[in-house]
């Protein structure tokens, strides 16, 4: 699972009522891998408004990944920033582990890079 995907996932457990703790999901016991991908600066610039930068920054720090504290004023003109962003959101993959909701403690397993976001009937 790429970190760009993680940035768009939140807890949907019925009794998880604190929206401030449903996102971002916290990684637990994860195995990371780098998988090279072609860089597309146009895609990166278009995706920036959709990325929750504070959540991505929090996740990056949790995983000991270097990321600038804020998005530059002109990201399209900052090749170093785009290179770092590309590496973090598109080449960094979570192979195995889990994501945990800080609101309710629900754990979402990640196996072979695929997060299991399915809930039991009583959690819906």
Automatic annotation (TrEMBL):
SUPFAM superfamilies: Trm112p-like (SSF158997). One of its GO terms (molecular function) is protein heterodimerization activity. It comes from the Eukaryota. InterPro entries: Trm112, Trm112-like. GO terms for biological process: rRNA (guanine-N7)-methylation; tRNA methylation. Belongs to the TRM112 family. This is Uncharacterized protein. It comes from Coemansia spiralis. The lineage of its organism: Eukaryota, Fungi, Fungi incertae sedis, Zoopagomycota, Kickxellomycotina.
């Amino acid at each position: 699972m790429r970190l760009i995907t993680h940035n768009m996932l939140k807890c949907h457990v019925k009794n998880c009522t604190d929206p401030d703790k449903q996102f971002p999901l916290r990684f637990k016991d994860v195995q990371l891998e780098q998988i090279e991908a072609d860089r597309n600066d146009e895609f990166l610039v278009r995706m920036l408004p959709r990325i929750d930068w504070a959540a991505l920054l929090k996740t990056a720090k949790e995983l000991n990944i270097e990321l600038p504290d804020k998005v530059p004023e002109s990201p399209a003109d900052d090749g170093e920033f785009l290179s770092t962003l590309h590496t973090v959101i598109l080449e960094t993959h979570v192979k195995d582990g889990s994501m945990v909701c800080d609101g309710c403690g629900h754990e979402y397993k990640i196996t072979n890079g695929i997060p299991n976001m399915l809930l039991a009937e009583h959690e819906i």
